[in-house]
Prior knowledge:
It is found in: Bacterial flagellum basal body. It is built from seven helices and 21 strands.
Amino acid sequence: MLKSLLGMVLLLVTTVSQAERIRDLTSVQGVRQNSLIGYGLVVGLDGTGDQTTQTPFTTQTLNNMLSQLGITVPTGTNMQLKNVAAVMVTANFPAFGRQGQAIDVVVSSMGNAKSLRGGTLLMTPLKGVDNQVYALAQGNILVGGAGASAGGSSVQVNQLNGGRITGGAMIERELPSQFGSGNTINLQLNNEDFTLAQQITDTINRARGYGSATALDARTVQIRVPTGGSSQVRMLADIQNLQVNVATQDAKIIINSRTGSVVMNREVTLDSCAVAQGNLSVTVNQNLNVSQPDTPFGGGQTVVTPQTQIDLRQEGGSLQSVRASANLNSVIRALNALGATPMELMSVIQAMESAGCLRAKVEII
């Protein structure tokens, strides 16, 4: 009987918690991407390039490029280019990127070009924050949109002033890496959590031996590893595939005030409360009245007098009871019963938190 009860308890614990791999919960400190940026020219456009009278930097860039190719443009020449556009090129240098490896680039217009569709990016050096060139980009741009215009009317689908070149840049310089040189590696949690950091530490110690891992804080778990890149790769491959039972997360409600979206996780609960939600609208109308003299030669003057009318209207506002809710589905039904719009729901959620009947942290982004 005791074994049966113990098995039922363990089964209940495993159903409440959710097992996830360490690789999905953490990242290796120092193994990261680096941003690259460059300035270049796109040619071959079908009359949709920059208007050079308004973007003089496009003409200046083209003159510099032509001079490097041995072509001298006569001084004072006013080039009216329609098939050339100045662009900014961005890319991410991957971790452990090697010389000759191809990476994707994003090309974005920085002038007044109407479209980059069908254009070709000329050789563009991509630099890092240290102003060193790490890659060279060139190739045909793929624009995920379409547009047409005629007779003053135009139709456009998606964005035409930005595109992507798959494998459009080649790494020319490698970044120095310290991986494999030390005897410790730090795992960084995606979200700070003391409980999760300790659970990851205990899981690694059970698999690799006591003292293999130490939780430094709510974000970092330090692992003792043998010196040598190949040994550390093998050990990390084993550790990242270990399963961790993720405990209950913090109850959170995320409010995006710009888009009016409200997102809550499954840990949000409600206590019983009463809510009255109403709409208060104030309308101000102002009319200008012209007052003229009664007689043409009476000596009076024509004046303009404003007439203002203010209308205040309040709708709704009835007090409604909200029952206690122990799970997310009950919370959704309780909030929907109020009949509030997403914008009104934001105010209701904030008021519930202040009243202490909302068991969740509210974050506004």
